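A quick aside before the break. I want you to see a complete sequence-to-structure record at least once, exactly as it would be stored in a machine-readable document. Don't worry about memorizing anything.
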Amino acid sequence: MTMSAKVQWAGDDRFKATTGSGFDVMVDRDLKEGPRPMELLLASLGSCSSVDVMAILRKSRQDVTACVVEIDAERADTVPAVFTAIHLKFVVTGRKLKEAHVKRAVQLSAEQYCSVSLMLEKGGVKMSHSYEIVELDV
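That is the input. The structure line, written in tokens, reads:
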């Protein structure tokens, strides 16, 4: 499988990224017209992991009403300022959620399914994951 993207300079420190599937994203180092590139990487990581977690929870018939992943990252102090550690905390809200299912979904995403997470980990980033369950009244 191949993927593609095109990034075009839009003046100053702004760039228009066009995905192979046809979506545009403005990227801006100064945050005037879009997120920074490293912020997009964190958003991609969170999106990839969330897709996995939700798919696994749906398959296990969990009554999820919300799923938010909070991502904290540390960067190196020197150039290149790569990520050195990233923590993902999943806050899963629903009714009668089984902790074992939530734990398993987060673990499977981290260890087997999320391509972005696994790529970062293989690149030397210390990855960690946690979860919190918010139970709604029935």
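Two observations worth writing down. The chain has three helices and six strands. Helices lie at 37-59, 99-113, 115-122. We'll return to this after the break.
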